[in-house]
Amino acid sequence: MRGPMFDDQRFIEQALYISLGKEESIVQNRLVAAGNINQGIYIETADSGFFLKVNFEQNLDIFEKEAAGLELMKENTPLKIPEVYHVGRIADRNFLLMEWIFSGSAKRSYWEELGLGLAQMHMATRPSFGLDTHNYIASLVQDNANQISWSDFFVEKRLEPLIGKAYYEGLLDLDFYKTFQSIYPRMQEIFPKEKPALLHGDLWSGNIMCNEMGSAVFIDPAVYFGHREMDLAFSQLFGGFDDRFYRAYQEVFPLEPGFDLRVPVYNLYPLLVHLLLFGKSYLSGIRKTVNSLL
């Protein structure tokens, strides 16, 4: 189904010229995504296709971080990552121009290649958990200040900022806020000790695509160096990943025993993200996990 046209042809022309250094003959454009912050536009030119993201934020930060995350993944996985052409600003609008991924049917080895590609990316490591800069998961800031301990990082940089924000915004009461904080000491004993791994950071089925060649493509990352089980747990939260994906991953980079029991704990973070973005319907899942840890 065709989407509506983006109503500012001149903006598209300028964005393409700034990004590519030449004028492009635009055949058509259409709006393919519209969220609270960003709009996504497909641009067809005489020679190629492009994906243009646009927002009205005060600075380029959110697009700069996305571009950096895509580049970091590209350096560390054989999986396809969209090419970034430019991040810029025209008048009061920021933009990110990337290649358009033409979709196709998954080839027979799609899920195995995805599992192997993620495992290879998770083998990229560094001494500490975090990243050299903050970035975003959806529109929420991720504090990536470096820490040596995963359990400390998970509590201080992932759980506490979001549960505190949820309390401040009236999404939960003080009693549950304190109850939530009471599980923090348990984190020291839950997670197996592993080196920091490069994570996609927002790994649900909506953030992988299948290109014309039938191969998997990673999009919309929220990268940082964390515990690799975070990605695998997040992939189970909303489903959509074939068992072949997990089997292929395990063959290359086996998980420590008890992963299934740890999944709900890891998923406290994405559930808090969804609580803040979409409301109280996600609170019951958070309560269930917290109660299991008391």
User: In sequence order, what are the helices and strands, one letter per element?
Assistant: HEEEHEEHEEHHHEEEEHHHHH
Describe the strand arrangement of the main beta sheet, using strand numbers: 1-2-3-5-4
Major beta sheet summary: 5 strands, antiparallel
| Total helical elements | 11
Fraction in helix? 40-55%
How many β-strand runs?
A: 11
The proportion of residues in beta strands is 15-25%
Low-confidence stretches: none
Structural class per helix/strand content? alpha+beta
> Shape, please?
globular
What would the average pLDDT be, to the nearest integer?
Answer: 94
- Please compute the radius of gyration using only Cα atoms: 20 Å
Termini separation = 49 Å
Give the structure's gist in a few sentences.
This protein has helices spanning 9-20, 61-74, 110-122, 150-168, 174-181, 187-190, 229-237, 243-252, 259-266, 268-278, 283-293, and strands at residues 26-34, 39-45, 49-55, 84-90, 93-99, 135-137, 140-142, 197-199, 208-210, 216-218, 224-226. It is α+β, with helices and mostly antiparallel strands.
